[in-house]
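Margin note: ligand = adenosine-5'-triphosphate.
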Amino acid sequence: MSELLRVEGLNVTYRTRGGLLPAARGVSLTLRKGEILGLVGESGSGKSTVLTALMRMLPRSARVAAGRVDFDGTDLLSLGDAPMRRLRGRRIGLIPQRPMTSLSPVTTVRKQLALLSGGVIDDVRAQRLLTDVGLGGLYDRLGDYPFQFSGGQLQRMLMAVAVLAHEPDLVLADEPTTTLDVTVQAQILRLLLDLRNRLGNSVIFVSHDLAVLSQVCDRVGVMYGGQLVEAAETRDLFTNPQHPYTRALLDAMPSRRARGERLRAIPGTVSGSQRLPGCPFAPRCDVATDLCAAEAPPPRPVAGSTVRCHHAGATS
Ligand SMILES: Nc1ncnc2c1ncn2[C@@H]1O[C@H](COP(=O)(O)OP(=O)(O)OP(=O)(O)O)[C@@H](O)[C@H]1O
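Resulting structure:
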């Protein structure tokens, strides 16, 4: 598979009352054509910041302090605003986190689908797209308002717009199933896989839930304190995790604990870890040494993973 996206050394900083906050720190990743890459991490680890930087939709308080984002031969970070707007939607689609709040409550769904698709969804096209995402029966109700549909139905419609209206090469999905119940969540994940298999698009799928990512992703990147601390093929990550934080995340997954066994929470919080000079996970890590607190480990290959840990390889 050839490469679609290459992110190198992405640094994003927010201006806050407490000073500059480095929310993404030296994030490097690659995405092949047709690949689904998951990004996982606790709240505040920097997942949305990376996704928003790729879309060039960061708030004004943010600054991309360093890095390069090559999208199919185009440097996204130096691209002018007008060509970037043309790219958004057409070649890069976004599936939002909360379908209900992404839509205006006072405009009919028909109008919003047309607007979101840049005018390409007329009534004939809408019928085909709805059928493609398993909602053919809702065509007669397009004049209704968002609150008259379920969250799962709205998310399918937004996926139809993001993935099918222009068939973009890259789809960015920011926790698209978080607000849905488990059965609907499974339907949405299946739909995402079906669409990828049919269209061959690449996807970056952000979630705080490793179990969700394991169902759809070819590869998974683990974020902590603004850094990508480990990235590997999904199976390798689950069977042979190299970073202590990845191991702790896996240990905290209910499905991986034996029945009756206590779940292991990770003590401490991610808060403030972006400002530490050494490894951001060091204060919560049970194998950390003085070196970890003093020096940030660079990414290096260990047993199929790319991992940022001074002790990876020695501790597994
Ligand atoms: N607009 C902003 N202004 C200042 N700080 C921000 C802003 N947006 C995010 N941050 C901070 O940047 C860090 C990374 O946040 P980000 O939203 O990227 O994390 P996340 O992993 O996506 O979290 P979540 O899962 O909760 O969405 C956090 O410390 C957050 O508080």
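The chain has eleven helices and twelve strands.
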